[in-house]
From TrEMBL:
Electron transport listed as a keyword: no
Keyword terms, alphabetized: Dioxygenase, Oxidoreductase
SUPFAM superfamilies: Glyoxalase/Bleomycin resistance protein/Dihydroxybiphenyl dioxygenase
Domain VOC: 4-121
CDD domains xref list: ChaP_like
InterPro entries (alphabetical): Glyas_Bleomycin-R_OHBP_Dase (IPR029068), VOC_core (IPR037523)
Protein name, UniProt field: Glyoxalase/bleomycin resistance protein/dioxygenase
Gene Ontology MF terms: dioxygenase activity
Length: 126
């Protein structure tokens, strides 16, 4: 059997709200409840399982490879939600997108300051 990522847990102060925000931004179906998780299903059968955490939450990074045709609608939703966004992971280029490797990409922060990224070309693919 090949080895593939199946799921990861995303700690959140409000799992339902965070999962719904990500699902909205990415244009995914409404998150499903599974036990104490709010689950966002991706197209490649990987899930992000949002779970409650009551202490300080360490910011993590989650990168999503999307189609070129998906970039504009996703970027529009990022701006409609009033989320901060950057062209770089160090947050030094606010309110910009990048064109790395011949594609487009943008970083944005979720409700718990996890740094989310959408790119249309994998790194090294340009």
């Amino acid at each position: 059997m090949p080895i593939s990522l199946n799921h990861t847990i995303v700690w959140a102060s409000d799992p339902g709200k965070s999962a719904r925000l990500l699902a909205t931004i990415l244009g995914r179906p409404t998150p499903m409840r599974f036990g104490h998780f709010e689950v966002v299903q991706l197209d490649n059968e990987v899930t992000l399982d949002f779970a409650a955490w009551t202490g300080p939450i360490q910011s993590q990074h989650y990168g999503f490879l999307i189609g070129e045709d998906d970039f504009d609608p996703i970027f529009d939703r990022i701006r409609e939600e009033g989320l901060n966004y950057w062209a770089d992971p160090f947050r030094r280029r606010p309110n910009e997108i990048n064109r790395d490797d011949g594609g487009r990409g943008v970083y944005f922060a979720d409700l718990d300051d996890h740094l989310l990224e959408v790119i249309t070309r994998p790194y090294g693919g340009g």
